[in-house]
Amino acid sequence: MTKRIILGIAGASGSGLALETLRQLAKAGAETHLVVSMGARATIQHELGDEGLARITELASRVHSPHDMTAPIASGSFPNDGMIVVPCSMRTLSAIAHGLGDNLLTRAADVALKEKRRLVVVPREAPLHEGHLRSMLTLARLGATIAPPMPPFYVGMHSIDEMLREIAARLLNWVGVDPGSAMTRWSDLPQGRLPSREMDI
């Protein structure tokens, strides 16, 4: 069955990861509902250039304005399989954690939580202060998956594109969409690249 996934892009750095996540969702045949915050539009233009927003939106099945609180994704009656917020700014993360549905992105995420659907949040900030960590803990306790974009170095990536592919594939996996061959699994690695059992850890 076709998966229906909501994807939110907040204003943090990481537009390339959002683009790759949408690419993989499209390749997996998912129906995607995209909402891009106003802050994200500026970040996308800076990181991906003047055509960046168009490259992102053309991959989505449907694009919703962050101001449109009457959009179907604002309601719990809209059936879907989950939501990814990538990247997620600390402002957006805090708003989701505390139920502040002040735009369509944060409202859709709030709906995912209240309806007990999968919500994968990809925070992009460093270092983290106690307020950030408290908001992440609150979200985790509410049922969200907190997924900082940590590269799986053990797979032997050789480029930024490979790193983005591997991280995006894991986001799909956590929201319940099979990423296929985009995700390198531990069992896929040649024996020669696995750590020795005798390694001093």
Automatic annotation (TrEMBL):
It holds the Pfam family Flavoprotein. Dimethylallyl phosphate binds at residues 154, 170. Residues 3-163 form the Flavoprotein domain. GO terms for molecular function: carboxy-lyase activity; flavin prenyltransferase activity. Keywords: Flavoprotein, FMN, Lyase, Prenyltransferase, Transferase. SUPFAM superfamilies: Homo-oligomeric flavin-containing Cys decarboxylases, HFCD. FMN binds at residues 11-13, 37, 89-92, 124. The keyword Protein transport does not apply. It catalyses: dimethylallyl phosphate + FMNH2 = prenylated FMNH2 + phosphate. Its EC number is 2.5.1.129. The keyword Flavoprotein applies. PANTHER family: FLAVIN PRENYLTRANSFERASE, FLAVIN PRENYLTRANSFERASE PAD1, MITOCHONDRIAL. Belongs to the UbiX/PAD1 family. Flavin prenyltransferase that catalyzes the synthesis of the prenylated FMN cofactor (prenyl-FMN) for 4-hydroxy-3-polyprenylbenzoic acid decarboxylase UbiD. The prenyltransferase is metal-independent and links a dimethylallyl moiety from dimethylallyl monophosphate (DMAP) to the flavin N5 and C6 atoms of FMN. This is Flavin prenyltransferase UbiX.
